Amino acid sequence: MINIIIHGCYGRMGRILHNIISSMENHKIVAGVDISANDHKNSFKDSLYEFPVYTNIEDCSVNADIVIDFTNYKSINGLVKYCIKHKLPVVIATTALGREELELLEFASSKIPIFYSSNMSVGINAIVNTIEHIVPHLEEDFNMEIIEKHHINKIDSPSGTALLLANTINEASAEKKNYLYGRFGKDNKCNANDLCIHSVRGGTICGEHTIVFAGYNEVIEITHRAYSRDIFAIGAIRAAKFLINQENGLYSMSNLIS
Question: Is 154 a catalytic residue?
């Protein structure tokens, strides 16, 4: 039995995690944490949760095997400190982490096992592996661009996944790329080492990412479409099952896939 704390249990992904884990054998949610917990006290939504929910993770005294986090980058510092204190592995699926948060994860990984990915989709991470192999063969003759599409409520731009793809291209390239974010103006000639990321927001688009490799008289496109957020929850659960058997360290989807 894997006993799980959901960090961000009232959020969209937290609710999806709850629904999926509740239907699984050998997995149990023992506690939830959400900054809006007090707003849900005695509500219909709260009655659906068969475990205690805390506003502050420091108040959580429930025995658990692992924490799964889908929250906000501002919550990462307190979460990591709690997990170090209680020797708990943690899966961090929160996006838009900055340098400060990433450095914190690197430091904390010497004390606890940490799994971090800006996208928990197995499909996206299979594409990452593909990019690593094909970019060296294409970069001399192909321009590369990324188009990402998301729903109207997504507040960070470009998406963490778009940056993951861009960074993968950059690391696989002999000549490092110059990142551009959209284009505007009359002097925007595409240079060989430019990598432009275009962000689209609208409707209820769950998530779509396309990498365009444009060469002379030929174009290669790799597209990933997420039709349900369930794929991210399923990926996070797979990551949790993987992580509880690992030594201290910082792990990613590439470790899980391999």
Answer: yes
